[in-house]
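Today's session is about reading a structure prediction critically. Students often jump straight to the picture, but the first step is always the sequence itself: look for stretches that repeat, for charged clusters, for runs of hydrophobic residues. Only then move on to the predicted structure, which in these notes is written as discrete structure tokens rather than atom positions. Here is the chain we will use throughout the hour.
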Amino acid sequence: MKLSQTNGPLFHFYNGDLHSTLVHLKKAGFKYIDLSFWSRYLSGSPYFTTDNEVIADEYKRELEELELIPVQSHEPFGNSMGNDDGRFYFKKTPLSIDLAGKIGIPSITLHVGMSTTPLSHEEFMEKQAEIFKKLIPYAEKYGTRLLIENTAWKKSDVNLADADDLIEMLDRIDHPLFGVCWDTGHANLCNLDQYAELKKLGSRLEGLHVHDNYGGVRAPDCDLHQYPYWGNVNFDGVITALLEIGYKGTFNFEVDSPVRRVSPIPFIKDGVEQKKLEMMSPELRLQMETYLYAIGKQMLEAYDCYEE
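Below is the predicted structure for this chain, in token form.
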């Protein structure tokens, strides 16, 4: 099994510069990349004003020059069931699917919507299935796989937190381009037996978001996106299931810095704002990404399934 990591959390280290995020991951040892469009489509972004052909050419040029291989991607931040009835979501997510296809990324991970009004399980599943179906024409153009991600909230009937919900959603959509991206941190927050859940998913599983947290033990409901071994996810169960179901994708990390601090914590003394420690340096972060690759290699070597 090959190792990959998302470049998404690195954008705020490099002021949004794609090249720097990819160089960073290559230096850390990663050859396979999860390209994140999570924050690329915010208001005012050139992704709304620049032709996708131009952006795709930039991505492809960077990947080719650095000899990196994109294995999956992630749709932009947004709520398909938001107060605007998903209008902003349906402006940017189709663009990101089109971009993934133009770049040649095999799949893109999709989030479930969060309803602003109470819905029954049946109402939610029907509404969400129709939302996902609207994305099919954009995926069919390039054959891009659409991977539905499990959520971190198993507290109501309006989520897709476990394998049963995900399988039901796939059955409702009933289209061959849909599959599942399993998030180990989200599953841990839901106190799921990940071995059993992954076995249920079987060949429907096509992507991973691997990261750790403490579930509900030390930091309740906190989606920390930490390094493996820094929480209590049972990765023995995860890797065993992946091997037993014949998982074909990469062991893909979605790991952020140990503390998910994106914006600075202001401190003002004598009228002067102190900024010396508002964020770790890219150099220090590179050491941590290199450490992450070493962790992943050790984990897979323990199961004799590590591939360069």
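Discussion point for the tutorial: Residues 80 and 90 are 7 Å apart (CA to CA).
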